[in-house]
Amino acid sequence: MTANARSPEIDRGAIALFTEVVFGGLTGIVPIRMLAETGTPDQKPQSRFIEVPKLAAALPDLASGAARAARGLYVVPGTVSKPGSARARDISATQVLLVDIDKGDVPLAREHLLHHLGEPSLEVASGGRTDGGDAKLHLYWRLSQPATGDDLERVRALRETVALKVGGDDSFASLHQPIRVPGSIHGKNAKLSPVRLLSSTSATYALDDLVARAAGMAQLVDVGATSPRKNRPSAGELMTRKTRAGGADDVTRFEALSRVIGHWIRQARQGQCSLDEARQAAVDYNTALIVPPWDASRLEREFDRLLEKDIHRHGPFGAPGLQAPPLSEDAIAAAFVARHAEDTRYCAALGGWMWWCSTHWQRDDRSLVREFMRQVCRSVASSADAKPIARRIASDRTVTAALRLAAADPAISSTVGAWDNAPMCLNTAAGLLDLETGEMHDHDPARLLTQVADALPGGSCPRWLRFLDRITDGDRELQTYLQRVAGYCLTGSTREQVFFFFHGTGANGKSVFLQTLSAVLGNYAATAAPGTFTASRSDRHLTELAGLRGARLVVAFETESGQSWAEGRIKTVTGGEPIRANFMHRDHFEFRPQFKLIVAGNHRPALTSVNEAIRRRLHLVPFPVTIPDEDRDLLLSDRLLEERHGILAWAIEGCAEWQRHGLAPPAAITGASAGYIDDEDTVGEWIEECCVTGPDCRAPARALYASWAAWAEAAGATRGSQKSLGEALRERGFQPAKVSGARGWQGIAPRHRQPQAEAA
Q1: pLDDT recorded at residue 246
Q2: What are phi and psi for residue 677, nearest 5 degrees?
Q3: What is the predicted pLDDT for the residue at 597?
Q4: Which of 37, 262, 332, 366 has its CA 20 to 30 A from that of 391?
Q5: CA 704 to CA 84: how far, in whole Å?
């Protein structure tokens, strides 16, 4: 392989940027390797050792020489203290987490990493391709501080964990593994291609934060097909067996230690041991069963991190050694907490007590928690020496008082923000489905999930597919779009920032579609009160929005003619911003909407303003088919729900497609949406019919409003005020200006006026 006129050029800018990100905060010497490319004649490896300040200037020339000699240019992404040796034990510092994705579904692995770890500081196409044709990638996350000493092992373990979870190259579990330099030339099998720097950001990450994020990242499997449930060992199981490095026992040392530390912190929280005893138990477990054990400082940092997280969620630990007086209401409350901390919670904003029903948390509408306290009081009363004391303990007053105290206990009290925070998981009776990986996990009360789908993923749905084919008139693109919409509705993500308007005359299947999807989703779906998303002269009570907290699909049936959209409210709920709401007679709280809004109607509500925001947000889904009377099946909804499990599997497949391609509305959707908005753009119609536009056009605001008002009156449109017209003009890019000393607008004038009739 020799250089020629068609060879890729060395990218000095990419090399300089790479050098700054990977080595800019380091001191010492960088090991350089120039290795014979695969598929070219064997050559002896060459090495260089270059000080960090000289690296950016030296690498371009080394890259050129390597390319001419059919070698690849590599660097070790760390530094050594002296030249001559670059083994793992020689690495003295590094400041990047890196992942080499060189096989499998590269785009999927990339998205998985970005979702869990954040935007990489550097993204590099290494020049090679997978068997499936994907460009191989190197991703770098720069650390906010260089890793030295004990932190080097944490970085090494982090590389190993992340590579394992996305199927990356596990060679980078070694700190001295070299990597190709972006800006150089890739020449395997004598085929030249540039090692391209695709993107860079200024993002930096704390090592502790990346370790925590990686721990919460599930192992990637094929998305769209559920895998067998992963048998996650409990803390009790982990404390009876050894856990070796590298995930050799199907669990990493980090995961095992985190789970066991969490167990002992919970024991301390419940008064079963002191915090010092919990810390010592973690040390003993690490020494006896972690192979090789973590060093003491790393273990202490992880214990402190999890302890801080527990205190943030549940509040401070009680003062050691202080006990409630025996048989007091405080002691009874403590006994209740010890017995029921795992299956009860209290959240004032959500209406009070919640209880765990083996699959999810339910609001205590039947006073079950009070009955739990009653049984605790009975148990305590049985140990009283005197009957009057026993009667007092078992009284309604004591039950009420002890329950009030228990509600304030840090192990039980919660805030509304702690609930339903798993946007890419779907709870089912079979377990918790990770919608990104297809992996099924055991139910876990610590996740604080209040919803569960009313179907299990699996099976087929032939009747459902025939129904879709009928209501879409055989439009395959519309059917797959509806599948992606359904999959999007399984998630708590609102990243699309859109709402859907299912429009069509009656007997067209849109209501049956929504009712069936809502039934499959169980209490993940909600129905909005009439008028929630159409304009009203009176303010809607915030309770209407409070009831939508945590929902993932909200259906609104708006069927009356002459209505207008409540555009401000729709913008709020689709924009991803927090909403302030409250239940009746309860304190206000804030929540971030997770729901996708689907409005179904026979009539198209009016738009009071037409702007880029509404064009971006609205997906109008036409239902063009009317089912004849003789073909209508009054039992269709029931028949479809016989396939609920298959319909959920169909929606899960749609979720996978949405994650790969987005909603990707077909032409039938974009065309219908644009046509609807254009029809509602009365200001745009007035401008087209009654105005002239251009840089030389100017007119007083009064003249423009007079023209608009006359046109609106004749057209039957709402004319609004001069101010509202001005807002509409500003949204279209016209600028306010002085015209003959009065307020006016630049770039537009009524058609009957000469474009330059008004002087500045």
Answers
A1: 64
A2: -65, -40
A3: 92
A4: 366
A5: 80
Distance between CA 703 and CA 729 in Å, rounded? 14
> What sign has the CA pseudo-torsion 664, 667, 668, 670?
positive
Tell me the C-alpha distance between 650 and 654, whole Å.
6
Which segments of 642-727 are extended strands (E)?
691-700
Question: Is residue 71 helix, strand or coil?
Answer: strand
CA atoms within 13 A on the CB side of 42: 1
Backbone φ, ψ for residue 632 (5° rounding): -80, 135
Tell me whether the omega of the peptide bond preceding residue 292 falls within 30 degrees of 0, making it cis: yes
Angle at 756 between CA 755 and CA 757, to 5 degrees: 100
Dihedral of CA 357/359/361/364: which sign? negative
Tell me, what DSSP letter sits at residue 603? S
Task: Show the domains of the chain with their CATH numbers.
Answer: 12-215 (3.30.70.1790), 235-314 (no CATH), 329-414 (no CATH), 462-678 (3.40.50.300), 686-750 (1.10.10.10)
Structure-block tokens of residue 174: 């070694």
Alpha carbon 321 to chain centroid, angstroms: 43
Pairing type for strands 742-750 and 691-700 reads antiparallel
Task: Please tell me the distance from the alpha carbon of residue 658 to that of residue 224, in angstroms, as a whole number.
Answer: 10
Backbone conformation region of residue 59, classed left if phi is above 0, alpha if psi is from -120 to 50, else beta: alpha
Beta strands in 228-327 (DSSP E): 243-244, 290-291
Sign of CA dihedral 83, 88, 91, 95: positive
Amino acid, single-letter form, for residue 196:
R
- For 673, the token pair is 């949406």
Alpha-carbon distance of 402 to 396, in angstroms, equals 10
Give the distance between the most distant pair of CA atoms in the chain. 102
* Residue whose C-alpha is closest to residue 185's, from 51, 366, 37: 37
User: What count of residues does the chain have?
Assistant: 760
- Residues paired with residue 30 on neighbouring β-strands, in sequence order: 50
Who contacts 328 (Cβ-Cβ below 8 Å, separation ≥6)? none
Residue found by looking up tokens 């692995």 in the block: 109
Helices (H) and strands (E) in the chain, counts: 25, 30
- The pairing of strands 185-186 and 742-750 is unpaired
Give the sign of the dihedral formed by CA 439, CA 444, CA 450, CA 455.
Answer: positive
pLDDT for residue 585: 56
Alpha-carbon gap, residue 149 to 592, rounded angstroms: 41
Contacts of 489 (CB under 8 A, 6+ apart): 517, 521, 552, 553, 596, 598, 651
Distance CA 13, CA 702 (A): 56
Residue numbers in the chain where pLDDT is lower than 50? 1-5, 221-230, 754-760
Output b/e per residue, 635-665; b: 16+ Cβ within 10 A.
eeeeebbebbbbbbbbbbbbbbbbbeeebeb
Residue 563's pLDDT is: 77
Distance CA 415, CA 599 (A): 31
